[in-house]
What does this fold into?
Amino acid sequence: RGGSKFTMETLVTSCDHNYVEYFHKVPKTVSLYTFRVVKLAPKFTINFSVRVLKTKRIMYKVDNLDGCQFLNNPLMNRIFGSVYKRIVVNSSYFSCPIKPGVYYIKNEGTVTMLPTFQPPGRYQVTMQTKMKESPDPYTMQMLWVYNVERIK
It folds into this structure.
């Protein structure tokens, strides 16, 4: 993209163990992740940021995006909408309220979230879902670390 090479280095997932019991990679798969919702999630928000790892400078940030409104119309946000279509498994789109159950997502589409022009360096993408009913800072979190190199 734009004369740059994007390399995903790591993805770390975590959850609150309250509304979401677990969130981890499915064994023996390359990009499939699973999580188990144990309590009804009537509403939630999404926080998203991209920061430079070396300086911690925030390059892009969205706070308190209405998760249910987004699920009802993923194209309301061009960036997240294209990513959402790539992470769903077997066209199993989510809807609110999110009912207890086991869900799957693919770790794909993250490069499409990134600006087409980005200086070389290492970056961290953080995505968190939050619920006001939960005392925890987030119900689910994904931390991607990626590297951008110039192609010569």
In short: The CA atoms of residues 45 and 66 lie 5 Å apart.
